[in-house]
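Quick one before lunch.
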Amino acid sequence: MKPMELDMRNHGFTWKPARGPFRLIDEAQARSFNERGFFLVENALDRPALERTIDAIAPWEEKGEEYLRTQPNKRMFIAEADGITFTVHLVKRSWTLRQLSAAPVFADLCHDLIGRDVRLYWDQAVYKKPGYPKPFPWHQDNGYTYVEPQQYLTCWIALTDADESNGCPWVVPGSHLRGTLKHHLTELGWVCRIEDGPEATPVPAHAGDVVVFSSLTPHRTGPNLTQEVRKTYILQYAPEGARVVESDALCNAPDRQYPIVKDGNRVAPPPL
Ligand SMILES: O=C(O)CCC(=O)C(=O)O
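Model of the 2-oxoglutaric acid complex:
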């Protein structure tokens, strides 16, 4: 396969490896993150935490789906009623989700993989509805909104079991090391790669597991061929001082991009 082109804003990128001492991850997970761009944290959320999370998302996700039904072709950008929904910025609406975003497991992942001063950057639920046949195509998260530093963290929390039958993540191990790749816009989203290629690897996860990957790890999800909704809640974290390049805005909106780790310490989320 031809080497993929870089984003024109990506000059001289070098991967900043995660180095210990670590609070949560082990050496094998650190090696996998540095060399392959991802790893799995098993059983991060127990059953009650999963139920609280799903219940907190439900009213907002349902409202969003109702709105999509009123739109031409029941679509808005990449969201589609009865297909795939993206429910964003839920930490502005739910104390349960705000607390989850700053839970020790995520704060410690931030410490281990980003550093001593880290903020929540983005949160969204992504639900794939039963029988939805379309993939969510290959992209890097930094291919959507170009942030500097390019290297931030995505935690894909499985709220339901996810495997190849219902749209678990797939990754291309090792492709994070060159920084942000060139993306082009399609009706299914921004795309940096068409073919899976032999290296593409599915990352199945049980409900409560977290697929941890870099903003630079190319990933995709497949169709949902089952009769159940595939549910994920995604939390992304960026180092203090991160900026959106287009607008030159700091990623520090106080209502949703609050500190998670400050001077190396876990921080409670601000009240709603
Ligand atoms: O969960 C999915 O199906 C895709 C979500 C995703 O890759 C993203 O939001 O960047």
